Recover the amino acids of this structure.
């Protein structure tokens, strides 16, 4: 096809309008996303667009009209959430979706009627709109020019020189991250919830519960790299962390897993379905990874959250997310028997973090109250309900592991950070709730003897490697950093502020 024929092609602009949101989201979130995440949403939207075009072509009996009708439909579909958010910024709620959605449907209907009645062949219009959408694509591609043009001074290499198991039978190691699980004092102060029953149950099973535990950082993208690499991230204004891909690299290919792998362990990843903990490059096997599901595509989630399907978004995703979480809890204990090598099992489970999917006994919460973005609607009630379910499933998981383990295992259950205060809360409350976290250990053969109140996650595996694998890691001073600035943008250098002496409940 020549260049002239390309600009004249009627099917070009609807296909490109279908692809543009995918490219746009990707190009402005390269610090979060990898190229492989482009495939599924691109295939989905292009197939839907092509199928719709064939149907409309038959209905209109005119390729140009059918293409214009489809492009209008696509533009309205993808712009819905953005227009709604813009109206909200100006104080125009329009009663949620009850007015705006009918307005969009009316615009679409009037557009179709106008296309049917017009005698124009739209050939010239096709050329113009093709040029417009190609320009949009080109501008988004410009953001990808420097995609891989980043460097980091962070040392990701493991220190495995002197690591070897102390015991003849190396213990299986289970590392469970419960996302946004607040510490005892935080739950008591901000939610009025006494979590002592759960913690007592763990202690009865000989777990050590770290009193007054606080995460080293208040964000997953800082907490997990620090935890899995046993080091503090460089603090101060640091250009190394202007890009989340650095954090991704540090999580996906981390020192902890490299150390276990060097000692002959099988690395088992239990997929969260989110970002970098969906799978690990270093993992020998990954379970619960179902990339074909909508919930496993970060690009698709972002697009749908701003589309005309937004009013039905929660209902669309709730089953996928529930299934994912249940799969994780069920899968963690499975790797005890029939494995030739010892295993390191890692599971990042996205509860009690919102959205709130589970009642205390696993029942589905009212989907009308579910929000998949940042919201504090029903926060105090639904967060605790989901936390109670996390407690129930965690105890079941622990009992399964302990009952079926021939050799006493190592079990680490932590949260990457606490829950979130509303933005209008005081900075003191925001810091305390975000950073007081869950931190418990099952350490056989006397490993708990080295623990102390306030023992933080940066030292978790320093202790484990020292006590069980003849490591010589220094136990670091427990420090805690609040992030000033926005670490979630491509050009925002975060500033790490030492708040160790300010976190008091």
């Amino acid at each position: 096809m020549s260049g002239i024929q390309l600009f004249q092609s009627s099917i070009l602009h609807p296909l490109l309008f279908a692809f543009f949101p995918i490219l746009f989201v990707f190009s402005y979130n390269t610090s979060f996303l990898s190229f492989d995440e482009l495939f599924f949403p691109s295939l989905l939207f292009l197939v839907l667009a092509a199928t719709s075009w064939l149907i409309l072509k038959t209905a209109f009996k005119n390729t140009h009209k059918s293409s214009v009708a489809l492009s209008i439909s696509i533009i309205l579909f993808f712009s819905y959430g953005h227009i709604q958010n813009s109206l909200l910024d100006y104080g125009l709620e329009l009663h949620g979706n009850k007015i705006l959605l009918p307005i969009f449907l009316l615009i679409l209907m009037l557009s179709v009627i106008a296309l049917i009645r017009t005698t124009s062949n739209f050939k010239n219009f096709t050329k113009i709109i093709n040029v417009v959408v190609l320009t949009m694509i080109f501008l988004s591609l410009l953001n990808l020019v420097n995609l891989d043009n980043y460097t980091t001074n962070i040392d990701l290499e493991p220190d495995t020189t002197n690591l070897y198991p102390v015991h003849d039978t190396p213990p299986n190691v289970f590392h469970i991250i419960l996302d946004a699980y607040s510490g005892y004092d935080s739950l008591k102060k901000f939610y009025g919830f006494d979590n002592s029953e759960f913690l007592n149950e763990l202690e009865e099973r000989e777990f050590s519960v770290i009193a007054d535990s606080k995460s080293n950082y208040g964000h997953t993208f800082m907490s997990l790299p620090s935890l899995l690499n046993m080091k503090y991230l460089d603090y101060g204004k640091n250009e190394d962390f202007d890009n989340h891909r650095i954090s991704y690299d540090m999580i996906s290919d981390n020192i902890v897993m490299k150390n276990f792998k060097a000692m002959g362990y099988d690395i088992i990843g239990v997929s969260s379905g989110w970002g970098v903990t969906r799978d690990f490059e270093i993992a020998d096997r990954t379970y619960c990874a179902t990339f074909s599901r909508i919930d496993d595509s970060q690009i698709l989630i972002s697009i749908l959250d701003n589309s005309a399907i937004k009013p039905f978004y929660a209902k669309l995703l709730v089953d996928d997310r529930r299934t994912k979480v249940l799969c994780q809890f069920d899968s963690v204990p499975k790797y005890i028997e029939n494995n030739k090598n010892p295993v390191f099992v890692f599971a990042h489970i996205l509860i009690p973090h919102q959205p709130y999917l589970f009642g205390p006994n696993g029942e589905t919460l009212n989907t009308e109250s579910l929000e998949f973005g940042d919201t504090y609607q029903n926060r105090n009630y639904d967060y605790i309900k989901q936390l109670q379910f996390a407690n129930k499933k965690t105890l079941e998981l622990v009992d399964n592991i302990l009952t079926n383990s021939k050799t006493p295992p190592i079990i680490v259950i932590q949260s990457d950070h606490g829950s979130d205060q509303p933005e209008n809360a005081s900075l003191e409350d925001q810091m305390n709730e975000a950073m007081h976290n869950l931190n418990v250990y099952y350490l056989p053969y006397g490993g708990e003897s080295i623990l102390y109140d306030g023992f933080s996650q940066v030292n978790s595996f320093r202790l484990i490697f020292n006590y069980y694998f003849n490591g010589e890691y220094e136990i670091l001073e427990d420090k805690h950093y609040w992030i000033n600035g926005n670490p979630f943008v491509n050009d925002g250098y975060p500033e790490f502020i030492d708040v160790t002496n300010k976190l008091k409940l």
User: Anything to note?
Assistant: The longest strand covers residues 343-349.
